[in-house]
Fold this sequence. Notes:
Layout: H1 2-13, H2 29-33, E1 37-38, E2 48-50, E3 60-63, E4 66-69, E5 78-84, E6 87-95, E7 100-110, E8 114-123, E9 161-168, E10 171-176, E11 179-185, H3 189-196, E12 213-218, E13 224-233
Antiparallel strand pairs: 1-13, 2-5, 3-4, 4-13, 5-12, 6-9, 6-13, 7-8, 7-12, 9-10, 10-11
Amino acid sequence: MKNIFCLLIIVATFPASIFSQKIDNQLTAKEKRKGWILLFNGVDSEGWTTTNNKAVPAGWIVKEGTLNILKGGKGGDIMTVNEYSNFDLYIDYKIEPACNSGVKYFFTKYEKGGNLGMEFQILDNELAEDNKLENHLSGSFYDVLAPTNPKPPINSPGEWNTLRIVSKGKNLTHWLNGIKILSFTRGSKEFTDAVSKSKFSKTSPAFGTIDKGHIMLQEHGGVASFKNIKIKLI
């Protein structure tokens, strides 16, 4: 009895934060009440498919609660089964040195241009080959708009980062590790001019004007890991 009493005293002295720490790939009761949805369950690739609607290949593996691209696995890109329009999206990601990856949204098949999506670029800005243009750096709207924050708060390869993409009507924001790094409005002059100078200038309909599509994780040859993928419709 005395031992039980002592144990209760010890537990009572623990800081509350110990009992409220985030558990990977699980939503808190508060998040569930606010409408958040997990897109990755930490166990398997349920809810994901290839871009031609086939089962996720062996080049992707779920290990220790993370969704991983295998080096040389040729897994290809994978996307959510469902499509999304107005949303708040969070993803934790980690890359190896020199890695190039990305998260695409509004990913769909264009009448002219093929399967495309707007991309939140993931890149090792120091060592990756595709680091020569500002709108190719990590956090950019790939090949269209560079981050407006000149030094986005990126953790080093091998460490976890958290990206956030918020889509509300025509307004988009990119966040990295809690800092807003890019904000733009689809259809604005700035947006239209930037698209016209990009590799997506010849698409039909005009690139970035589609309002709904899949969330896609890009396999670009490098090793990347993802977890805590969650979305809220807004």
